[in-house]
Amino acid sequence: MSKQILILPGDGIGPEIVAEAVKVLEQANQQFGLGVELSYDELGGGAYDKYGVPLADETLERARQADAILLGAVGGPKWDTIDPALRPERGLLKIRSQLGLFGNLRPALLYPQLAAASSLKPEIVAGLDILIVRELTGGIYFGSPRENRVLENGERQAYDTLPYSESEIRRIAKVGFDMARVRSKKLCSVDKANVLASSQLWRTVVEEVAKDYPDVELSHMYVDNAAMQLVRAPKQFDVIVTDNMFGDILSDEASMLTGSIGMLPSASLDARNKGMYEPCHGSAPDIAGKGIANPLATILSVSMMLRYTFNQGAAADAIEQAVSVVLDQGLRTGDIWSEGCQKVGTREMGDAVVAALRNL
Ligand code: NAD
């Protein structure tokens, strides 16, 4: 049966990096007989320009029909001043929530070849391999009411709401435990249960789910401590499960431990492992169109897609190995470049990964 993949290149560097990831996907398709079929559409600023909204109904329908989605990134200064309800990021939030993509997997893995690119000492980060499981469709980014208002005394006030229901916590906790089970069997749940009611329920429900996973060692940590521990001794973590906002912040922090956000893929999964795959970084308008963006995060997102949605572990391993070969060859885009390495552009990096994959 063919595998339908919807490609949403997005804005800024999105089309450049997605083009390279598609080359790698097509090579893997040929080499491993995956049977993938690709179709294309717009999300974000490009969709606003074409359809007048950041996510058109027809695009959403196409996404529903697809088995997996590959996204570049959305946003840019061109759309910063439009109606906030129509901003590119709203399209991203909408597609995640409409498709029920509640489980966001964000690995922070340091390739040994890039240990020097980290802002931390090599001995603290060497061998780092953390998986952050972030709840993606609930919590404060979606909670209502939310409001900007003017009080009777004339002062401006704004507030958001942070709701979590038991079922939302239970399903993301299960993803965390399942991931821990196939890794080192250690799960750290991050919350702010000393202050927030939503975190107190979070902790209670995670404890309940833990009863079904007696082989996984569960620990809890407050988010402020987790932020500190991530830079003090990051290798103490293996799998972290946390809510939407805490996961947003901690995964960006973890990404910098690895040297460049240009290396980090992500997966957003629904209950049946249908997923949207995208690099962790944004649309990098500062370097868009220059042909210098690092396509490896997007290429590694393709590898995650093959692993988690299509169960093609061998093809996924091969793509990761090809990336490693290219790093061994000393090829680097500007964001991960260091003395003695060969600086290459987006296209050369993509071509090198395709060649390495072909030669495995
Ligand atoms: P960003 O991730 O786009 O860029 C941050 C810095 O990292 C920039 O200096 C950029 O040049 C660099 N960078 C990012 N990806 C890179 C790559 N692949 N190769 C080399 N360097 C890379 O974050 P930002 O500047 O805060 O946001 C820019 C736009 O992206 C905004 O409109 C923002 O809303 C949007 N954004 C989108 C997503 C998404 O689509 N998922 C995520 C974050 C930000």
Structure write-up:
The chain has 360 residues and is an alpha/beta fold. It folds into 2 domains: 1-102 and 265-360, 3-Layer(aba) Sandwich (Isopropylmalate Dehydrogenase); 129-257, Isopropylmalate Dehydrogenase, CATH 3.40.718. The protein has 12 helices and 14 strands. The strands form 3 sheets. Strands 2-1-3-12-11-4-5-10-8-9 form a 10-stranded mixed sheet, sandwiched between helices. Helix 8 runs parallel beside helix 9 (244-257). The model has no long low-confidence stretch (mean pLDDT 95). It binds nicotinamide-adenine-dinucleotide. The site of nicotinamide-adenine-dinucleotide (NAD) has 23 residues, from helix 4. The record marks 141, 192 as: Important for catalysis. Pfam families: Iso_dh (PF00180). It catalyses: (2R,3S)-3-isopropylmalate + NAD(+) = 4-methyl-2-oxopentanoate + CO2 + NADH.
Counting DSSP E segments of at least 2 residues, the number of strands comes to 14
In the sheet with the most strands, the strands line up as 2-1-3-12-11-4-5-10-8-9
CATH architecture of the largest domain: 3-Layer(aba) Sandwich
Q: N-to-C SSE series?
A: EHEHHEHEHEEEHEHEHEHEEHHEEH
Main CATH class of the largest domain: Alpha Beta
Count of discrete domains: 2
Largest sheet: 10 strands, mixed
Question: Fraction of residues in helices?
Answer: 40-55%
**Span from first to last CA?**
26 Å
Gyration radius from CA atoms, angstroms: 20 Å
Give every kind of bound small molecule, once each: nicotinamide-adenine-dinucleotide
Q: So, the CATH homologous superfamily of the largest domain?
A: Isopropylmalate Dehydrogenase
- CATH topology (fold) name of the largest domain: Isopropylmalate Dehydrogenase
Structural class: alpha/beta
In round numbers, the mean pLDDT is 95
Indicate the low-confidence ranges by residue numbers.
none
Assembly form of the protein: single chain
Strand content range: 15-25%
